[in-house]
Amino acid sequence: MKHIPIILSLQNTFGESAISRKEINSFQEKYQCVIENDWLEFDETEDCFYLTPELLDYKQPHSDETYEVLGLGNLEDKIVDALERGKLIPWGKLAIAMWFCFLFIVIYVIIEAVLK
To answer: 39 with 10: CB under 8 angstroms?
Structure first.
């Protein structure tokens, strides 16, 4: 999209502040561009413009990100590291907590059935 550098420049230059007609004209002259009408909202009470919320929220797509390709050795190392970290989890405490939850559910169901 050819407007991306212009949009990012608008965000950096003006942000959420008020923009006068003079500032719009000087921006267009400086960057040799045309600011689209749907990028701006006019505030009649202050006689100024603001960038639209869509334009303020716009983020540049990260198309130039590089992704690391894992070889089989690296993948194996990552899996082994994850398994080693799993050994550090206190499984005994977790099992006890799960049993308490199970017993609570069973007792609750029995009490509810008896009281009905």
So the answer is: yes
